[in-house]
Amino acid sequence: MSSTSQIGGGLTNIVSTSQLKSRLVIWSPDGLWWVEEKLAGDQVDHVAVMSNMLPGLHSLVRVVVGEPTAARMLEKHAHEILYAVYWWAIPTAKFFLGMLIIDTWQYFLHRAMHTNIYLYKKFHSVHHRLYVPYAFGALYNHPLEGFLLDTVGAGIAEFVAGMTTREATLLFVVSTFKTVDDHCGYNLPLDPLQMFSGNNADYHDIHHQVIGIKSNFSQPFFIHWDVILGTRMTRKDIELRRQKGKQRSE
Ligand SMILES: [Zn+2]
Ligand SMILES: [Zn+2]
Q1: Other CB atoms within 10 A of residue 167 CB
Q2: Residue 55 within any structural domain of the chain
Q3: Which of 178, 192, 203, 219 is the most exposed place for a label (fewest CB within 10 A)?
Q4: Under 8 Å CB-to-CB from 224, ≥6 apart: which residues?
């Protein structure tokens, strides 16, 4: 059996055939539209775009380091600076912005799915059949929820951050890996996806338990919305609640 059909077989075990079909109906046109949408790779005249950026870069360097230093720097290193800004600084900033947009979209929509009884019963309760998450369970949800929460959120991030097809592809791949990893049930010490923020498998496991179902809405990258809006729950909070409960019953 090929690995593709193994994955397909695994998916049909955890997602019903009708759910899988409805996902394909949504994903296929969406994917085709997205691939055809804009120019990418060699189709883009990078030299022309970089040339257009040069005056702006000159002004920026002058503001940051002052006129005399800027003149010296730009005389010797204008092309290196432009290259680094175009190929590294701007894509990194766009990637980070895309992460923040996805997090913001998912936090408020996810929270609404828990505060609105109709949305919870009709859509989000499907995902919460999992009290103990597992990797494939990351995408075990109502097809419409998957479309709204994941596809639309990622599309908005791509649009607002002005990403190229390659940049958006990287963001989509990393966010998919991250959400699968957050449901894998393992907090492995050298897992890079779980090291860069407090939003990891353990954090999301709490949300899947009864005690934490009204907490830890943040997904998939950071936890700032939970911290700012007071919906964060840690293992320490759970322990403190248990101790208080014990004290009250004694
Ligand atoms: Zn939830
Ligand atoms: Zn989940």
Answers
A1: 19
A2: no
A3: 192
A4: 103, 218
Cα dihedral 114→118→122→128 (10° resolution): 20
**How many folded domains does the chain comprise?**
1
Q: State in Å: Cα 107 to ligand 1 middle.
A: 10
Q: Is the pTM of this model over 0.70?
A: yes
How many angstroms does the Cα of residue 122 sit away from the middle of ligand 2?
Answer: 16
Residue 213 Cα to ligand 1 midpoint, Å, equals: 7
- 76-92 in b/e form (b: 16+ CB < 10 A) is eeeeebbeebeeeeebe
Residue 26 lies in a domain: yes
Q: Find the largest Cα–Cα distance for the chain.
A: 77
- Rounded to the nearest angstrom, the distance between the alpha carbon of 113 and the centre of ligand 1 is 7
Find all residues with CB under 8 Å of 132, minimum gap 6, and list them: 185, 205, 208
- Tell me, yes or no, whether 23 lies in a domain: yes
Using the predicted structure, report yes or no on whether residue 42 has a pLDDT greater than 60.
Answer: yes
Task: Tell me how far apart the alpha carbons of residues 77 and 65 are, in angstroms, rounded to a whole number.
Answer: 14
Beta strand spans in 37-156 (E): none
Could you tell me the residue range of the domain that residue 33 belongs to?
A: 16-42+87-249
Whether 36 is covered by a domain: the verdict is yes
Percentage of residues in the chain having pLDDT higher than 90? 53
